[in-house]
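Milestone 3.1: sequence recovery, worked example.
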């Protein structure tokens, strides 16, 4: 079976994990700040706050921006549920902005229209969470321009996009956002097992996320009420969480970070080869990569020309029977029963729904070979022909 994604762990990763396991620090030692500084430097951003998942990072980002039950947060329906859930954790109202079917990313024309209407109805969002789908950045310049005009905050969900570039700068530079969030789940670009990081250029936001990731507890006498009782003393000044990353995970992250550029370069060549193999195909069309973007290609998605949902189910099942674990990203978030209970309905975000009916994720990960790619594309084309012939 060829999975759609898989981690790449080498001997250097294993030695750096072993070294940390044999050290004095398993948690809250030197590796976490080293990993934060190294990834922040990689992204040309000031501060990194490492946590136990991107989901936690998104939650802390919402809290640091003061999102509460009085607020509305908008995100993309074409994402993992965590992109929307983070706002629900803060009891905010969630709404979605439909996508551009060519890229799978939030459509900025739709966003601008929706903002105009929201302004008239006095219900502008407090924050927007664009998701860099499959590793390609959203149009952040436009989103930042709208953020200034309509006065909302921006959290980039860059769970797919560590190592990607936008307008020649690393995703995560926060030039066009308040906070940017990465995931290090094994299926993503680099892994710390479970793990995530929020990066920002705003020291207050970084401090707030640091406080909240560790119970809201501080050792800093300057932040305390009254006098410190002594060296052992701490105070809880907010209601925080245990969202910390540990030193073993950070040691793995540091070692993986050394290979990030190679991983992305490899994903780029795989994507190029897929695009080459599919260039004359009308039945399986890759997502468009727009100018100003260097995608990290977390996912390689093709839109297939199938007539019915049943045909698509059959295609995925035939691919799996042939040993290719094709997947589908994403079931539109508003179609999930939890979000339907909140009042969303089928038809609310037609582009995301139409995209979902066509999209198939093909395998992409650094150790995939060019021979694997040929097999995958031949198999895909064969099954598409079978389905077409059976229908005619
Ligand atoms: C994977 C993912 C997340 C959640 O990441 P975790 O580290 O597993 O919490 C959030 N958003 C998107 C778009 C993702 O793909």
């Amino acid at each position: 079976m060829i999975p759609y994604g898989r981690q790449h762990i080498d001997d250097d990763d294993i030695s750096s994990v072993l070294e940390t396991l044999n050290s004095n620090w398993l948690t809250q030692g030197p590796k976490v700040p080293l990993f934060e500084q190294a990834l922040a430097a990689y992204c040309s951003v000031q501060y990194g706050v490492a946590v136990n998942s991107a989901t936690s990072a998104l939650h802390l980002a919402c809290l640091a921006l003061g999102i509460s039950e009085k607020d509305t947060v908008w995100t993309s329906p074409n994402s993992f549920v965590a992109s929307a859930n983070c706002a629900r954790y803060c009891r905010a109202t969630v709404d979605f902005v439909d996508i551009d079917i060519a890229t799978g990313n939030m459509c900025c024309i739709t966003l601008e229209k929706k903002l105009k209407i929201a302004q008239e109805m006095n219900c502008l969002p407090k924050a927007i969470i664009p998701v860099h789908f499959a590793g390609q950045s959203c149009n952040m310049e436009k989103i930042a321009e709208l953020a200034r005009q309509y006065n909302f905050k921006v959290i980039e969900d860059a769970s797919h996009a560590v190592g990607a570039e936008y307008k020649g700068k690393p995703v995560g530079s926060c030039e066009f956002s308040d906070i940017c969030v990465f995931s290090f789940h094994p299926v993503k670009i680099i892994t710390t097992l479970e793990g995530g990081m929020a990066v920002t250029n705003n020291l207050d936001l970084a401090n707030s996320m640091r406080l909240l990731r560790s119970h809201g507890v501080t050792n800093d006498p300057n932040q305390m009420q009254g006098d410190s009782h002594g060296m052992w003393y701490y105070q809880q000044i907010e209601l925080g969480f245990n969202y910390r990353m540990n030193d073993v995970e950070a040691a793995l992250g540091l070692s993986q970070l050394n290979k990030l550029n190679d991983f992305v370069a490899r994903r780029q060549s795989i994507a190029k080869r897929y695009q080459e193999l599919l260039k004359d195909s009308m039945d399986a069309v890759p997502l468009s990569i727009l100018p100003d973007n260097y995608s990290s290609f977390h996912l390689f998605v093709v839109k297939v020309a199938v007539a019915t949902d049943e045909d698509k189910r059959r295609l995925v099942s035939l691919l799996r029977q042939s040993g290719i674990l094709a997947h589908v990203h994403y079931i539109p978030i508003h179609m999930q029963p939890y979000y339907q209970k909140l009042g969303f309905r089928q038809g609310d975000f037609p582009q995301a729904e139409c995209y979902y009916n066509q999209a198939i994720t093909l395998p992409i990960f650094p150790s995939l070979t060019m021979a694997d790619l040929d097999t995958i594309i031949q198999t895909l084309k064969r099954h598409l022909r079978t389905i077409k012939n059976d229908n005619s």
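The radius of gyration is 22 Å. Residues 261-391 form a domain with the Aspartate Aminotransferase, domain 1 fold (CATH 3.90.1150.10).
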